[in-house]
Amino acid sequence: MMLKKLFDSLNIVSAFKVMGSTSEKKAVLRSLAATQLLVQISTIPVALTIPTVKDFFETDLITASWTVIIRLLILSSTVLLFARLGQKHGYAPIFIGGAVLITVASGLAAVSPDIYFLILFNGFIGLGAAMITATANPILTATFAPNERGKAYSIPIIAARVGTLMGMIAFGPLLEFSSWRFVFLTGLPIGLWCLWNVRGLVKFDYLKPDKSKTVSINYFAAFLFSSMIIALVVSLNASGWFRNTSSGINTLWSDLSSGVDLASMNLQIPIILCFIGLTICFIIFQRNDETPFFRFSYFKEKPGFSMAVFSDFVFHMSMMSTVVLIPILVQEGRGYGPLVASWVLVPGQSLGLFIPILAGFIFDKNDPPWLRPGSLLLIVIGIGSLAIFSNMVPVWGIALLLMIAFLGTHAFQAASNANVMNNLEEDSAFASGTLEMDRQLGHTIGSTISATVMALALPAASVLEKLRLESLAEYQNIYRDGFSTATSIVIFTMLSGAIVAGIQSGLFKSLRAGTLRKLP
After folding, report:
1. pLDDT tens across 54-64, in order?
2. Any idea which architecture 295-520 has in CATH?
3. Which CATH superfamily is domain 21-212 in?
4. Which residue of 21, 235, 275, 306 shows the fewest CB atoms closer than 10 Å?
């Protein structure tokens, strides 16, 4: 009731009615919401299946983890290519094809005869997710005016939160009392419902390719770029660099400090060298290309776009670090099981059911300079409070403190997406591909940094195991202290994003002028 009165007083309800004022807008919002729910429920919550899949197929944790890593590899390395293909052949066919691929691959994953088929089908799910996310942003920007995009983005973001919550709430009991196969099988009926909603997009002429423009794609450059991203992601996720074990987190640095022979790194070093070599080749190749696959010039010519992408990247990197660290705090630092560790995140994620609407409305109304930097500062306050008080509050207190950080998260994302796309309207395909790529790379780098810093803060695995057996209280206290150390990196990283967002939005100029009104 209070929310309804607030929305009515701000005229939010009537503002959102305008979003469905045409059949095209209604169809696009419905399609984007359905596909974002499908992508979300078939990616992030599915990570919960890793331990169960490991035991079912009697494999190791590293191999089982590739059911998730393969999606990240395919999604992050192909999203820019699919954005360009949508620009060349039409966004709607690529978008719908992605929904078809996820639906079929989810059904096949549910009946996988072994772990390798499961990894393969998860790769196709990642490919479908890349096709959807690469083309969703250009479809939205082609349908809605710049002063409508904040509200428009809030709808698929809320749908994505619904997908996350559905997975967190439903997948735990399915894994506990039924089979992991039903987790993957959920993608089949949701995918069929999604296809029913997106079927009408093909009839809209403005989503078809512009025949007056010639779109050239250098596929060799695209191959080099995808290979470069794959090498980067693999080097960050390789098993020798960081891995969860029952006695702690091992990383490259903790392995070296424990006296592990350098031969154990024979996989990582070639991958890093391969990434460096591919990057050099790609840059050299791009310099002589009249139609470069990745336009570095945009970051020089469009400082607003560059700063928007940076703050968005920092946001995803820092929040992924938090998502990685919270289960470690709850399970190892407080002694609870994985079910409690996942449900601690639910109250904060629930804010995503309505906060994006309010934030999108505020962004579209006057894009106040405090919105995005203020949202990032809320995340800093929430994570900082966790670092200080996590030793003092009960487990439900951790969930409450997390709600502060999630309030900033849900307020930031819709405004950030619209801000990135608005700053490069002349090339929405590149803006979309860059936005989605920096999201995935932010997640990867964030999880790597958080695991590495946590490992540096912990003693050797043998010492931890001994403490766990002899003094559980001291063992848990070490993990809580390690959590506080790791979150300090997250806080400083997020602050850098807030400062850049403040510069780009004109916040500091407004403060010097003594007003927070939007700058002309």
Report:
1. 878 888 766 78
2. Up-down Bundle (1.20)
3. MFS general substrate transporter like domains (1.20.1250.20)
4. 21
